[in-house]
Design goal:
Layout: H1 3-24, H2 32-49, E1 54-59, E2 64-69, H3 76-91, H4 95-101, E3 125-130, E4 133-141, H5 145-160
Antiparallel strand pairs: 1-2, 1-4, 3-4
Helix pairs in contact: 2-5
């Protein structure tokens, strides 16, 4: 094999990798800008409700994009909010849905004991869905389960309009 043939092979491989790289970029992910918009909207709604919330956004790999702690929020809410976001990104379902599936006799009974205890099985988390793909998760903690769920569902309406 001469140098010219080798150069053609390398060029062909690079073009193939480049085109696959473009194709894989069709997968969406939560951006920092999206996370900031969601957090701002949820914070405003939480303030109206009198809830000092922690709002967390994870990307499609369940890694943190942004976590926002409102003044005077509970210290424990930080981990809870992020783990709700993690749960929703990892399992592609709202934590309220997981709650029913994880009850004794349910298909996912005991799931909260997996993933180093990071799976949350009560309301306040939603997957972030765009164009039919789960591109991340959002978790809210700081109020009652009903309040956290309401705030997460509010975020879902914001996502649909983004």
């Amino acid at each position: 094999m001469n140098e010219q043939e080798l150069a053609k092979i390398v060029e062909s491989v690079m073009q193939s990798v480049g085109s696959r790289g473009q194709a894989s970029s069709s997968y969406q992910d939560v951006t920092l800008d999206m996370a900031k918009q969601l957090i701002a909207a949820v914070e405003q709604r939480a303030a109206q409700m009198g809830v000092n919330a922690v709002i967390a956004v994870a990307n499609r790999g369940a890694n943190p994009v942004a976590v926002h702690c409102m003044d005077n929020s509970y210290i424990a809410s930080y981990d809870i909010a992020f783990n709700k976001a993690y749960t929703c990104a990892a399992l592609k379902m709202p934590t309220t849905q997981l709650k029913s599936l994880s009850q004794p006799g349910g298909d996912l009974y005991g799931i909260q004991h997996t993933n180093n205890g990071r799976i949350v099985i009560f309301g306040g988390g939603i997957p972030i869905i765009k164009d039919g793909q789960c591109i991340g998760g959002l978790g809210v903690s700081g109020g009652s389960e009903a309040q956290d769920t309401e705030l997460a569902e509010f975020a879902q309406t914001i996502i649909q309009n983004m």
